[in-house]
Each structure stands twice: as C-alpha cells, then as structure tokens.
Amino acid sequence: MTERRRAVVTGGAHRLGRAMALDLASRGWDVAIHYSSSEAGARAVVAEAEALGARAASVRADLLREDETATIIAEATEALGGPLSLLINNASIFENDLVETMTRESWDRSVETNLRAAVKLTQDFASQAPRAEIDGAGEPVARACIVNMIDQRVWKPTPFFLSYSVAKAGLMAFTRTSAQALAPHIRVNGIGPGPTLKGTRQSDEHFARQRAACVLGRGADAADIVQALRFILECKALTGQMLAIDGGQHLAWQTPDILMADE
C-alpha cells in the first residue's frame, strides 16, 4: 500500500493558504490546516478537503507565542496519522510601518510571525521528516519539502512595510541556508508572490493599478501560485530557490526611486 503524503499549511484557512491546501487535497495529500483566530474558516477548509477524499484536520496556534508554535508539527502528525513530508510556511502579518513609525511591537509581530515561527517549524518538521531514498542511479532523492511563502519585494525592496520586508528578507536567507543544512533529505524553496489577491486595505482601483504596473501588465492569480507549488514539489533537483510569481513586478516595480527618476 502506498504511504499517504501528509502536509501542514500555516495560515491555511483563507486566501493562498486555502488554495494550496485544497489543491494538495485534490492530488492525494492529507492536510493539516493551521489557524490562529479563523476557526470557522479552518473548519470549512477541512470539510472541503475531506470532500476531495483527503484526511484533514485543523490545528490552532498563535505564531506570536513560541510555546504554541512548538505544538503544530506534533499535533498535525497525530491528527493525520503519521509523519509529514511537506511544510508550507504561509502564515504572515503584513503591516505598514516605516523607519519613522516602526515600534518594538510592530517589529516583534512581523519578525515572530514571518520569520521566527518558520524557523521553529522547520526545526520541528526536520526532526520527523522522512529520509531521502536512493534511486536507480544510486543518487539520493529528497522525500520531504519545505515551501516558504516569501515576497517578490526581497528582490525589489521599498521603504514601506519595513518590519515585514526585513523579516521576509530574513526568511529568504533562511530558505537558502536551511536548504544547504537539510540536504539531501529535505528540499527547501520559496514562492515570492506579487499582487495576487486584493488586500483588505486596498481599494479595487488601487489593486488594479498595482497589477497593471507589473512588467506583464498583470499580477498573479491563486492558480499561478498553486502551479508554482506543484512545480516545486515535482522538480527533484530544485532547492534553495524562490520563484517570483509576480507578473515581473520585481523587475520594474514603480517604487519611489523609479517614480521620481524623471523629476
């Protein structure tokens, strides 16, 4: 009997986390949906995943509290009935602070949620992940993956969302270094979305302008992010990389330096 594949998706109750979790469920993965406060949303995703034939469960933890973060992998493993082979660090806090307005509290919220939680989860995941197997050519093939949701802005930084941006830059560095540390047993990669889903603070007009300003004249859709996830999982030679799924936003985003270039 083929061993079931099991995944945990942090922030899996809504938006891109939900899209990735349900795509995994549709392709034979059992999924644990992490949430902090969106219990109803998590339960809804669990029900949808089960309707697709997956074993699914919800796992609650506040990523600002390391003692709660430390329970996620163990609870997901128990709920799904075996070790996990995929961790998606998707949960994120996106707050707009600047050098002038940043506080210790805003900094800590971003770093704890966007970076430190991913580091802790990686440690816990690695301790239970399956070892690489040897293929017919005598070479190791990783049987476990970590996918970190980063941001295209690590390649095209701006002075806005300072704490968030610094934390995501740290997550990019951690993706590369942990890919080396965990090879050949675990592949570690990232996805860097651009304008994909409208934020709660955005108007429809602002979101449309943001997408139109990308090199391709459009941003991404949830389906594009899911397609990137599929590629990462299927490409056995890929590790330490971030795929920027952003319509080319990282190449020519209209940041303040560009906007003022003609003045």
TrEMBL record:
Domain of life: Bacteria
Keywords noted in UniProt: Oxidoreductase
A Pfam family: adh_short
Family matches, as InterPro entries: NAD(P)-bd_dom_sf, SDR_fam
SUPFAM superfamilies: NAD(P)-binding Rossmann-fold domains
GO MF assignments: oxidoreductase activity
Signal sequence region: none
Record flagged with keyword Oxidoreductase: yes
UniProt family annotation: Belongs to the short-chain dehydrogenases/reductases (SDR) family.
Alphabetized NCBIfam families for the sequence: PRK09134.1 (NF006597)
Name listed for the protein in its UniProt record: SDR family oxidoreductase
Species of provenance: Thermohalobaculum xanthum
Organism taxonomic ancestry: Bacteria, Pseudomonadati, Pseudomonadota, Alphaproteobacteria, Rhodobacterales
